[in-house]
Write a structure and sequence with these properties.
Chain lengths: 291, 383
Amino acid sequence: MAILIDKDTKLVVQGLTGREGSFHALRNRAYGTQVVAGVTPGKSGQDVEGIPVFDTVNDAVTATGADVSLIFVPPRFAADAMYEAIDSGVRLIVTITEGIPTHEMLKVYNYLRAKGVAMIGPNCPGVISPGKANVGIMPPQVFLPGGVGLVSRSGTLTYQIANELTQKGLGQSTAVGIGGDAIVGSSFIDILACFQADPETKVIAMVGEIGGNEEEQAAEFITREVTKPVVAYIAGFTAPPGRQMGHAGAIISGTSGTAGAKKEALEAVGIRVGVNPTQVASLVQEAMAEL
Amino acid sequence: MDLYEFQGKEIFATVGLPVPRGMVAATPEEAEAAAAEIGGRVVVKAQVQVGGRGKAGGVKLADGPAEARAVAEQIIGMDIQGHTVRRVLVEEASDIAREMYAALVLDRGAKKVLAMLSGIGGMDIEQVAHEHPTALSRVWVDPLAGWSDYIARRLCFDAGLGAELVRPMGEVFTKLWEAFTRYEATLVEVNPLILTGDGRLVALDSKFSVDNNSLYRQPEVAAMRDVEAADPQEQMALERGVTYVKLDGDIGVLGNGAGLVMSTLDVVADAGGAPANFLDVGGGAKAEEIVSALEVITSDPKVKVIFFNIFGGITRCDEVANGVLTAVEQMGIAMPIVVRLDGTHDVEGREILAQAAVPNLYVEATMLDAADKAVALAAGREG
């Protein structure tokens, strides 16, 4: 099982012929992901090390049956690329691009929800189902197949925690970087629901950070809908209010969005919150042992 | 990016939302001249991006130019919650019959734009929501549908405003929506929105935040960035395109990835130390990027120790190790540098640093050990 992507996933890469796009698409393919197509307008008929290039996503989907699109195009063209993917029949879009204007994302989000298409990102590292498929820019060597579902707003923090889990022999069903922007396609809740429904996932690790109230919403959702054990981590206890901490979405507005408030909301519903990434791995190990 | 009151009001004026006549002054002399030009009674308002300036004495009435000058003398240079007042807005005094509140907010949770209206204004809106919950109305706007006149009608009737205000309030909201969308705001707040004695709606204050991701296509707004107000290190970081936030401790922190760096600051604080900054070097392997980042950090005189936290993913630790060595050699940094290398090719990376045997370079394998080391060095317990 795993969630979102697996061995059967057929990937089309928008921006395949760019430097980033080709570098990561070839890495994803080397991991075993079926990278079936690329899209660059005006370059149909070409290929990138055997991956055929099409002019439009529609052509790529029609010719190859691609069901997931990975987007690497620059911020100013990203909304257009996402609309094209939504209208071309893929079921999932993974947008790596950082720096997309928030007003664009507001519209894209509402459009894709209305169309029933799922999206991970933007400003995210992608998704990996260890041993099955890797879609995005995550380094596969720190992951191991197993029963921990990992969901995070951060890239390197995901690798850090996955690595600590892997070193303890705790593999992952799927790791999802939902992205560090204020508006992202999938929230913690969307991914928690997937992990809850996935038989392979035994324990869920959720990695949040300052800004917004998604962690609080997740806490409320977990009490209602999630029966599997959840361990959490929140970054940004030392972040000053009103300052954007790297990620566009990582900002405390007034008194809302603080790490303390998030930790409190999670602990109030019985979720264990680790004080550092190492402790998170230990808490996951404890939760696994209790099963 | 947050705008000053006067900048927000410039935008309001551009979209046709009435604001009091006003001029910005950086000196008491300019304030005097502004008051003379405006004529009559004026209000002198400190321009700071922080609430509570009224209580702090940053807003004062003045009868005529001489008094405006005297008042500006008191306000300019004043410290309001750590913000130094460098400019005042001199405005014609308004005849206030009623204070209300209007706002458009990008609601991250709902992924829609939240429109709010209250018949009570001039105070903190959270207080209004708490004490007079029925006075505050809310409607969530679908960004695909955009603004529609019914939204303002519903806001007015739900907030219990009289039918006579529905039409003028509709115009106010249409203009606020225009400002919100044209300038890609994340927040536009008018508090108070006043009803004057002669029945006009006027924006007496402005709180305006814009989306940083949109600045590349919002040159007018980008030009409003107040570079002088930024701290020297932050100014330097901005010029170099380094993602940096100044804090007030003595341990300079840099790492790869925003989440990891935030986590590093927390781990340093947990170990009893005080981080001096947030700095994300991104990919972070190239010597010139590391030099650029370290120059920003070491320009802060408070920094005593540097903590470089790297988790190697696609970026390999051996590449980072070589980058660090080149940077340290090139800059001749004398203060202790704790480097934590973990992840891809970490053993090789640590070996490269060990071989180099740089006396002030300490190499650790875990984030927690490295934080302990950095804190001990900063406290003078080791070194």
